[in-house]
Amino acid sequence: MHPCAICQRSRAQIVRPKNGQKICKACFLDVFESEIHTTIIENDIFPTRGERVAIGASGGKDSTVLASVLKTLNERYDYGVEFVLLSIDEGIHGYRDDSLETVKRNAVQYGMELSIVGYEELYGWTMDQVVDKVGRKGNCTYCGVFRRQALDRGAKRLEISHILTGHNADDVAETILMNFLRGDLPRLGRCAEIVTASSTSTMKRSKPLKYAYEKEIVLYAHHRQLDYFSTECVYSPEAFRGSARSLLKELEKVRPSSILDIVRSGEQLLYKDIGPSKKTPSVASGDPNQQSTRKQTQKQEGPRLQTVGSCKHCGYMSSQPICKACALVYSLNKSNALVEVLVTEEPS
Ligand SMILES: Nc1ncnc2c1ncn2[C@@H]1O[C@H](COP(=O)(O)OP(=O)(O)OP(=O)(O)O)[C@@H](O)[C@H]1O
């Protein structure tokens, strides 16, 4: 029987996936929470007392652990923050409708207000309809782009300007790997940041679980007996992300520190601005083809720093003149003769 490497008193029950340390359950829960508190303090995630902050709540393990830990830490360390659960209903039958029931229970369990915003209401399309139209290849792109904006819009309705997501170290490392393999250094730099803010938008996003391993999040949820929804999305992840995930899991098996090492590498690779591109054409409409012309021009001239501004159509955060959500809705509606971009209905 190993004594706990931290308290030296109780029997070690858990081998920490992050570093192999053998510790007892109480010390694991304590060290897991303490590390997230340290991340919050070191990165000044809650600089303003009295702030209302939205937690992107999917009902899955990550955002459920995030909500639970934040409630604990807010009470323990008195951050003075009010948390609100914000859920996006993508319109995926047999998946999101079930997980939203979990979020409704979490709202009661954690005593947090819950707000739900749907793709159908925002974009005129549920994900089930998008998949019917575009098929299973590439549908994750629509979902990811729509969700990002839907969270912004949901928060704005609540008069909240700070959104937290449950992205963990594995998620961040996976995205860094994907961007590295694509040679997309500007995006790589942005995805490695823990807090993203912009001078042209009031919305801030933070990832308090950025240094928490997925395996430890599962362990924490298990030992705290949290109520979360564990089914995978019925539309499996796009092939490239799936491959990056498998690669990461293989690396983790032979070297558990790989996940944090990749996150640290991403942080070191934060791209440095090399000045504006000369020939970038302006994008005047939501036509995604024009945006791809812009991309090609950038490829010829070398990468540029991706700066965050506002979409000319809908006014929400965008690194392009026309945001990706507007471009995607445009492409979905175009063949239905609905050229009016629905997202313009709610300007910022
Ligand atoms: N439908 C949703 N509504 C609100 N927030 C969401 C939704 N889907 C994802 N998010 C936010 O984005 C984060 C990352 O989402 P992702 O799809 O990678 O899921 P995940 O890693 O399985 O996380 P979770 O376990 O919380 O579902 C989530 O932790 C959550 O904060």
TrEMBL record:
InterPro entries: CTU1-like_ATP-bd, CTU1_C, Ncs6/Tuc1/Ctu1, Rossmann-like_a/b/a_fold, TilS/TtcA_N, tRNA_thiolation_TtcA_Ctu1
Keywords: ATP-binding, Cytoplasm, Nucleotide-binding, RNA-binding, Transferase, tRNA processing, tRNA-binding
Main location: cytoplasm
Recorded coiled-coil stretches: none
One GO-annotated biological process of the protein: protein urmylation
Ranges of residues in domain Cytoplasmic tRNA 2-thiolation protein 1 C-terminal: 309-338
The enzyme's E.C. designation: 2.7.7.-
A Pfam family reported for this protein in Swiss-Prot or TrEMBL: ATP_bind_3
Pathway: tRNA modification; 5-methoxycarbonylmethyl-2-thiouridine-tRNA biosynthesis
Residue ranges, compositional bias (Polar residues): 279-295
GO cellular component: cytosolic tRNA wobble base thiouridylase complex; mitochondrion
Binding site for ATP: G56, A57, S58, D62, I88, G166, D171
Molecular function in Gene Ontology: ATP binding; nucleotidyltransferase activity; tRNA binding
Domain tRNA(Ile)-lysidine/2-thiocytidine synthase N-terminal, residue spans: 53-233
Domain of life: Eukaryota
Region (Disordered), start-end ranges: 273-304
Subcellular location: Cytoplasm
Similarity-based family: Belongs to the TtcA family. CTU1/NCS6/ATPBD3 subfamily.
Function statement: Plays a central role in 2-thiolation of mcm(5)S(2)U at tRNA wobble positions of tRNA(Lys), tRNA(Glu) and tRNA(Gln). Directly binds tRNAs and probably acts by catalyzing adenylation of tRNAs, an intermediate required for 2-thiolation. It is unclear whether it acts as a sulfurtransferase that transfers sulfur from thiocarboxylated URM1 onto the uridine of tRNAs at wobble position. Prior mcm(5) tRNA modification by the elongator complex is required for 2-thiolation. May also be involved in protein urmylation.
Protein name: Cytoplasmic tRNA 2-thiolation protein 1
Species this protein is from: Orbilia brochopaga
Name of the gene encoding the protein in the UniProt record: NCS6
